[in-house]
Write a structure and sequence with these properties.
Nucleoside Triphosphate Pyrophosphohydrolase, 8-stranded mixed beta sheet
């Protein structure tokens, strides 16, 4: 099999110094029951910003403008099945009220302060949030 690197787009939606996290369903194939940032893999010929506009609309039903997405971090991770490169963008402006649009995949949405993140959060996402707070733009995740 050929070496594979998967590209992910992740968004940090920030409001009043809190981050929006989504809790994965208990039957999720990856990190069941854990909170995570919103995002997903890129589709063919899609940019990171285009992927986030799509993912945010699909997962939480709000509209964001590509110009309101500000680059925050890139991380690289060697996974079991493939390598992953994720570009993380921050956004503080959107239209609509976030709501769980995929109840079969997610349990709930919740806002958390940096010093009050939930215990069950995907470790790479916890790390990325902390690194962004320190203005670090690149990391290699275990």
């Amino acid at each position: 099999m050929r070496h594979q690197v998967v590209a992910y787009a992740i968004i940090i939606m920030r409001q009043n110094n809190k981050f929006l996290l989504i809790q994965r369903a208990e039957n999720a194939s990856f990190a069941p029951g854990h909170y995570s940032l919103i995002g997903g893999s890129l589709e063919p010929k899609e940019t990171f910003r285009q992927a986030l506009v799509r993912e945010v609309r699909e997962e939480i039903g709000v509209t964001i403008n590509e110009n309101d997405l500000h680059f925050a971090h890139t991380f690289h991770r060697n996974g079991v099945k493939h390598e992953l490169v994720a570009c993380v963008f921050e956004c503080t402006t959107w239209q609509g009220e976030p709501q769980n649009k995929e109840p079969e995949k997610h349990r709930e949405l919740a806002w958390f302060a940096l010093d009050d993140l939930p215990e069950k959060i995907i470790p790479a996402h916890r790390s990325v949030i902390a690194l962004i707070a320190k203005k670090e733009f690149y990391s290699e995740q275990p």
